[in-house]
From TrEMBL:
Any one Gene Ontology cellular component term annotated for this protein: plasma membrane
Protein name per its UniProtKB record: G-protein coupled receptors family 1 profile domain-containing protein
Compartments in which it is found: Cell membrane
Membrane disposition: Multi-pass membrane protein
PROSITE patterns: G_PROTEIN_RECEP_F1_1, G_PROTEIN_RECEP_F1_2
Native species: Zoarces viviparus
Residue ranges occupied by any G-protein coupled receptors family 1 profile domain in the UniProt entry: 54-310
Length: 333
């Protein structure tokens, strides 16, 4: 009996030692992490100050004017992309507060709510950019007909289903993160540093699924661009100076801009996503933390780069920009 009790005591001591060692390692890494926080505060603040009014103008254009009723499927996707970008801007103040403050309350709000909402809107942007690319691709391969997926009704159904799916996953993640919290006397830098082992497994599984979803969209975008470029090449060989060749060349340019913005904003983050989730040591953790924070900044820059997509894909938006520019010029003179 005494041997059994001794084994239990030693086992409990070992588990406690491992837990304490893990916490000590996290604190050591966290001490290194905080040295670059001024940079992240500054960059996120600049993105917020530029992105909020810019996307506020776009949301006003799409939702508060005569544009309220979408006339095409591409308009539906652009409206949803604009909504995702605007909501992403609204998530930035809490992220800025996380870098600027060492408050346990700010840390809890950021990890249990703001981060989940941030990535909800990032992945909404990823999905809607994929839908926009698919829509443009179908227009190239079926110039004289309308595929069922190009109808306004289908676009509304797909958009609603996307939001419902992402909101359901996000809500489940938020609920589980609250239940998975462990008490701590210090404020860890990494959100996963304040969760128990079971939530860490969920964290890895979530990142794996997110990476698979991202890769699916990325492969689709590359296929759409390659197919569009091939159609342009064939058309130019048949009739180099025809109007159809010119339209196809414009479609290829638009697709290239879309793919370029997508790759710049989202590829770097997903290159470090899985290594970060499955990191092994504090030295790797330090590098991957910096890499993740920098690539999240690149993902957030999406709110400043997406207006390029609205401009090249929406004639009405271009007209509105020109009218706004002319009003500003007249007012200044």
């Amino acid at each position: 009996m005494s041997n059994q009790e001794g084994e239990e005591v030693r086992s409990s001591f070992n588990r406690s030692s491992v837990t304490n060692q893990t916490k000590d390692d996290a604190l050591t890494c966290d001490h290194v992490y905080r040295s670059a926080y001024l940079f992240f505060v500054t960059v996120h603040s600049l993105v917020f100050l530029v992105g909020l009014p810019l996307n506020g103008f776009i949301v006003k254009f799409y939702f508060c004017r005569a544009q309220q009723k979408a006339s095409s499927s591409i308009t539906v996707y652009l409206k949803n992309l604009a909504a995702a970008d605007f909501l992403l801007c609204l998530c930035l103040p809490i992220r800025i507060a996380k870098y600027a403050s060492n408050s346990p309350t700010v840390h809890s709000i950021n990890c249990n709510f703001a981060t989940a909402m941030l990535f909800l809107n990032i992945y909404a942007s990823i999905m809607f950019m994929g839908y926009i690319a698919a829509n443009r691709y179908l227009k190239v391969v079926r110039p004289l007909g309308t595929h069922i997926l190009q109808t306004v009704r289908a676009a509304h159904i797909i958009s609603t289903a996307t939001w419902v799916f992402l909101l359901a996953v996000t809500n489940a993640f938020i609920i589980l993160s609250f239940h998975g919290q462990r008490s701590s006397t210090s404020v860890p830098v990494r959100c996963e540093g304040s969760s128990n082992g079971q939530f860490s497994s969920l964290y890895k599984m979530t990142h794996t699924c997110s990476t698979i979803m991202f890769l699916s969209v990325l492969v689709s975008l590359v296929f759409f661009y390659y197919s569009t470029a091939r159609q342009v090449s064939l058309a130019q060989q048949r009739q180099p100076a025809s109007s159809s060749s010119t339209k196809l060349a414009k479609s290829r340019r638009n697709m290239l801009v879309l793919v370029s913005v997508f790759c710049f904003c989202f590829v770097p983050y997903h290159l470090v996503l899985l290594p970060k989730a499955f990191r092994w040591s504090c030295s790797w953790s330090t590098f991957l933390h910096y890499a993740t924070e920098v690539t999240i900044v690149m993902s957030v820059l999406n709110v400043c780069l997406d207006p390029i997509i609205y401009f090249i894909l929406s004639k009405k938006f271009r007209t509105q920009i020109r009218l706004f520019g002319s009003r500003v010029t007249v007012h200044n003179t």
